[in-house]
Amino acid sequence: AMDTDLSSQDRKDLDKFIKFFALKTVQVIVQARLGEKICTRSSSSPTGSDWFNLAIKDIPEVTHEAKKALAGQLPAVGRSMCVEISLKTSEGDSMELEIWCLEMNEKCDKEIKVSYTVYNRLSLLLKSLLAITRVTPAYRLSRKQGHEYVILYRIYFGEVQLSGLGEGFQTVRVGTVGTPVGTITLSCAYRINLAFMSTRQFERTPPIMGIIIDHFVDRPYPSSSPMHPCNYRAGEDNGAVYPSVEDSQEVCTTSFSTSPPSQCVFTVTKAHFQTPPPVVTDTLKVPVMGLAFSHQLSSSRLSYQPAALGVGSADMGFPVLFAGGLNAAHPHQLIGPGKEGGVPPIPSQPAHGTQADQERMCTPLDGVHYSAATPSSSEDTETVSNSSEGKCGSPHDLLETIFIRKVGAFVNKPINQVTMANLDIPFAMFAPKNVELEDNDPMVNPPDSPETESPLQGSLHSEGSSGSSTGNTHDDFVMIDFKPAFSKDDILPMDLGTFYREFQNPPQLSSLSIDIGAQSMAEDLDSLPEKLAVHEKNVKEFDAFVETLQ
Amino acid sequence: PHRTCCRTPPPGATPAMNCRAEVLEVSVEGRQVEEAMLAVLHTVLLHRSTGKFHYKKEGTYSIGTVGTQDVDCDFIDFAYVRVSSEELDRALRKAVGEFKDALRNSGSDGMGQISLEFYQKKKSRWPFSDECIPWELWTIKVNVVNLANEQERQICREKVGEKLCEKIINIVEVMNRHEYLPKMPTQSEVDNVFDTSLKDVQPYLYKISYQITDSLGTSVTTTMRRLIKDTLAL
């Protein structure tokens, strides 16, 4: 129907949202793989430059690469924007870790309001992306990069290529947003055999080659776009100075109306900048890389040559790497960044002092890239606003669209994910994962007690072995050290563990034994002729008795 | 700032029929309780907070900017993102600290649950007090385990970290369903939908409560406190 077609203004707005959403998505992903903690400040007064009402910095080089890949296009069906995260060792081997995909499918939502609902949902999706980028395996790897490996990113546009992730890669969906022109989907496919090749292995001394070879995959497609390190040094000594985001002139001043959705307001203004565009040096500082490593890096096939590295960590205001390198003394210890390298970690308990610490840490990132935009000065502000008559936001409208959810939505897991942790056993979650079914667990279903041999049975059936055991012969498993959780010694005189051990395999009750029953029947049958003979002898007495009854 | 009293359901009552409810379960060591709870609560609130609203003429409003920051856990191999708001962080830490103390002091088997409920206020006429209508309820069930040695603790660090990653993915799944959210309010109604007492961000109205399960396995002891509202209303 004609009236549900997108107005040209809505279409323009939507395209702009999608474009900036794509750029912000790339920023969030790359920044999450820089190897450092990200911190941006909330601001109660809108600055007019923060798309989707989120403080996400723009690293100029990253925006530049993203725009190059997009080449003026937007994600559409069959044309996805992908951010590939890979790892490259100091020996030059590389391995793809993740592919983040921003895709568009044909499922359109014609009813949705562009300037309002779509915008807010895109903002929500970016928040989800912030959260999800910290929970895939590559995050922990990226926090420890610098000495033996670095994390690289590559942006491409077109068809998604997942073959470099190895077998059995997993996907996680970040979210979707329906729009009138299609549904935006954001997801991540990540290599999982990282889980076995944990960060510990990167802390050990060589050989690393032996591990990498398993994952070394020839790229099926030659790199159409160059790979870039997620951490880099931007400065005057760097030959390439990337222009700041030229579209920064096009800021997003969001102005929402509480009127009914049909009269929603969205204002996009072209602000006039008084100050020159910010210089590259405003961008964040980079972590240190070892000298030996930097030599390797410059001779690799990366097209982006970072500047001379090896600056002392005194220059840096925040902890990033293991300055101590391989922690041979504790090969199994997973140390978070900041716990080594001589720079104290940011304490997790808030105190007066830490606020200042955190602000210092954030300083390089806090430089605002855009000067403040004042929408009121712009001529091409398109503002349509209708005052709300107070009938909006009525709580009576609430109850119409609430959905009912079952409690315990996440308690049910897919079958293949049932682990011991779901069983109500102490320390179940530490049990080896290959024991998947409760039935196999000896602690839940102890082996059946053996049937005890009756001593009588031995005499009746001479061919049977006169088993001497009346007790437990079943010793297939021995509990060495059973520490029942939460058992209190002062209540029972006997330790719960001892109790359990002693009485775990009680003998079966004799009356329940089939053999005993069968044996007594045999006895009865054998003794019948004898009993009949006795009764026949006394037949006269029986007859007399019967006559007294008649 | 005024203190508004809400009629809340009696302790132990189930939430309203049309309130979305999600339940997460974690097994953690005692010293991991706080960080695990904060990770989950902050992740939910990240999605349920906006920038500060600034109402202008003719019913339009603009929205402030929400900053975010990474938090590393000390006792779990895990990191999460939270909203950059010290006030909000303090409020959550207070609630989680009380929960942790209650767990420890109750003498129970170390089982309890902490709930984060988002609600809307509905004004009622005098003499009735305002009603609080929940629209989303997150419950985190906690089981505290005791570990015997350092090796078990190290394994626990990693396992709990992996579990929390799953929980974050679960939370994001729920958020992505784009189910009911309160309508954006007018200026006069904004305090019925959002908590406007913070200076830098604006979460939906929420309250945190917790229950400790006693050793019989039943929630005989129920502690419901409107911690945050009381704290921030002062």
UniProtKB/TrEMBL annotation, chain A:
Comp. bias (Polar residues): 373-389
Subcellular location: Cytoplasm, Cytosol; Preautophagosomal structure
Region (Disordered): 332-392, 438-472
Main location: cytoplasm
This protein's UniProt keywords: Autophagy, Cytoplasm
Family as reported in the entry's similarity comment: Belongs to the ATG13 family. Metazoan subfamily.
Protein name from the UniProt record: Autophagy-related protein 13
Organism: Spizaetus tyrannus
From TrEMBL, chain B:
Protein name (database record): Autophagy-related protein 101
Subcellular location field: Preautophagosomal structure
UniProt GO molecular function: protein kinase binding
A GO cellular component entry from the record: Atg1/ULK1 kinase complex
Alphabetical keyword list: Autophagy
Family: Belongs to the ATG101 family.
Biological process terms in GO annotation: autophagosome assembly
Pfam families from the UniProt entry: ATG101 (PF07855)
